Amino acid sequence: MTVTWEELGWERVAAGVGRVRLPGWDCTAGLVVGAGAVLVIDAGSSLAEGARLRAWAEELGGSRVTHLALTHPHFDHVFGAAAFAGAEVFGAVGADTVPAEELRADAVRNGLDESAATEAADTLVRPRHLVSGEWTLDLGGGRQVLLANVGPGHTAHDLAVLVPGTPGGPGVPASPETVFCGDLVEESGEPQAGPDAMPSHWPAALDRLLELGGEDARYVPGHGAVVGAAFVRAQRDALAARFGVSR
Fold first, then answer.
1. What is the pLDDT of residue 169?
2. 168: exposed, middle or buried (C-beta count within 10 Å: 0-12, 13-18, 19+)?
3. How many whole angstroms separate alpha carbon 174 and alpha carbon 194?
4. Is the CATH code 3.30.559.10 the one for domain 6-243?
5. For residue range 153-208, what is the model confidence (pLDDT) as tens digits?
């Protein structure tokens, strides 16, 4: 029996593209299904959460997870990465340099069980493929995905994932572009600017997201509901005013 995306708690954003909002920190993880290849975007906040993500992705994708893209090095997005053994792991240049102990301490401060945080830090998987500009992944079946280093902003190492739209055809609706934004965009609360944020660059990173996706794209934030270009633009302007950044 085939399990649907909705039955597993996933939201289908476009054909073969979906996301799930994880409990605890309302962190988003994404999924892009190709022909015999499956990309997961972000890995959750613990090894247990990463294992659940992998099981869901393989159920929905019909194949093992072949690629993992980490949008930025915060514990709620990377601590499940060790559960994706055998996947090719991608991140922005520099994402592999954040100390595991720093991530562990931040996780505990934010309420993750100390033993789970220690386990994840001890087994932390770093990105093998570091994106400095743009990197195109071929997932087969005509599906290509663009990884773009659009930061710094929320952190010094922010990666976005663009899934091109499809034109559709007889009986098949067209799909819009989808942009997975990581925490450069947040819908469920004010964007968080921690000690590793680079506020003076953040508005420019959002300009880059808008250039990638365009006016009709669906933008998937790191936390919260899927939004449109108008929301991203408004958040860009709010951040520029908040941090005194001019165009």
1. 72
2. exposed
3. 39
4. no
5. 999 999 999 999 987 777 777 788 999 999 999 999 999 999 999 999 999 999 99
H/E segment holding residue 5: none
Give φ, ψ of 48 to 5 degrees. -65, -40
Q: What pLDDT shows up at residue 126?
A: 96
Give the closest residue to 203 by CA, choosing from 236, 161, 165.
Answer: 236
CA pair distance 58, 66, nearest whole angstrom: 10
The C-alpha atoms of residue 137 and residue 129 are separated, in whole angstroms, by 11
Torsion sign, CA atoms 239, 241, 242, 246? positive
pTM of the model as a whole: 0.96
**C-alpha of 171 from chain center:** 31
Instruction: Measure the CA angle with vertex 76, ends 72 and 82; round to 5°.
Output: 85
Q: Which residues does residue 29 pair with via DSSP β-bridges, in sequence order?
A: 20
Which H or E run includes 47?
A: helix 47-61
Burial class (CB in 10 A: 0-12, 13-18, 19+), 189: exposed
Ranges of each domain in the chain: 6-243
User: Residue 48: how many CA atoms within 13 Å on its side-chain side?
Assistant: 9
> Which among 124, 186, 110, 121 has a CA at the least distance from the CA of 153?
186
Overall size of the chain counted in residues: 247
